[in-house]
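Example (one chain per record):
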Amino acid sequence: MLTKILSISGKPGLYKLVSTGKNLNIVESLTDGKRFPVYITKRVIALSDVSIYTEEGDVPLKTVLTKIKEKEKGEKVQFNSKTPNKELFAYFAEILPEYDKDRVYASDIKKLINWYNILIENKIDFEAEEKEAEETGEEKAEEAKKEREEENIKESADKKDVSSGASK
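Predicted structure:
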């Protein structure tokens, strides 16, 4: 689901991708439900492409959101925009102790918490994507297997026709 949830540079909140066109996307605000076009000149990023810096590399946003959801028991995080940075960093250290303290800023944590709260308010299941990907992967593997079997049957039938001298 995070592949369809977007952050647009210069605009607050999150947006759901409704439709794509040649030079624009139609999005719907998760905050007020208004739809509007976003042209390709805007910087748009899907939440599935966002990751958080850690000391060993990066952690996908979905993993961090899942950890917050576990800590908060599925409820919204009770922070506001005036929460002191010290408290934000302490909270985030509980969620992701190995985060890179040099590259993750208080503004990043505020944005992350805001995104999490918007997703929870809209009952968007960001964990479902992993399950869907597994199911889709299994379905694709089954389809590919069936296609290979059908091709093998067709090839063996063609070989029999050629070897028996039959013409098509």
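Caption: Residues 133-137 have pLDDT under 50 and may be disordered.
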